[in-house]
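Example (one chain per record):
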Amino acid sequence: MQLARWAEIIESHYKKPMDIEWAKDGIENKLYIVQARPETVHAEKNGKILEEYILERKSEILLTGTAIGTKIGKGWVKILENVKDIDKFRDGEVLVAEMTDPDWVPIMKKASAVITESGGRTCHAAIVSRELGIPCVVGAVGARKILKNGEGVTVSCAEGEEGKIYRGLLPVKIKRINLEKIERPKTKIMMNVGEPEQAFDFSFIPNDGVGLAREEFIISNYIKIHPLALLKNKNLKLKVKNQIEKLTYGYKDKTKFLWIN
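Predicted structure:
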């Protein structure tokens, strides 16, 4: 509640959406606001224009991983083993690394795409790539061995959850649709929401509501506890019980945690 109040005060002061970072001091046990800057990920995004990236031609798939975003990028491969080699990276190259951390951001800003061997949807490379609006493939095992410095590749995150790295610089078409100019059909259009995190973006597409939401993804991504584990938790291992206790802190009746969320 304290953070929420502070967020309202900060946004009221700057009169715009703000990206606010905070910390809790482990010794004083107090909350602190450590940074506030204009929010750009959603604020600068034009929700009225829908962009669809389409590969006009495909080639050999060199490797795959988890797709971050829905764009396609291409360029010359640059494999970096250490962030100290930042001066060797050129604008428009495809960054290939084992993983990234905040020190890599200056390089990532210049990249046409990012490929990492480790990490998932919530790793540093994924989060920063989303913010920068560049395609990123994480968990591409063996990328530093399979790909070669200087070879041209096309990184596609526009073909579902699997990101694909194609050989060569392939032609890409960007289809832009002005949603304000689309005539509304007589039939009601309902949305299928697979990943809960897509709901915000889907809300900008003309629709008449949600027809199907994948409940199992909501449970696994946000609630994080199987319903049966809340109903019948007597036979669970102590480690699992402790995890549930931590997630449901403040709920006397643990079964209510699922329904409230």
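Caption: Residues 2-14 form the longest helix (13 residues).
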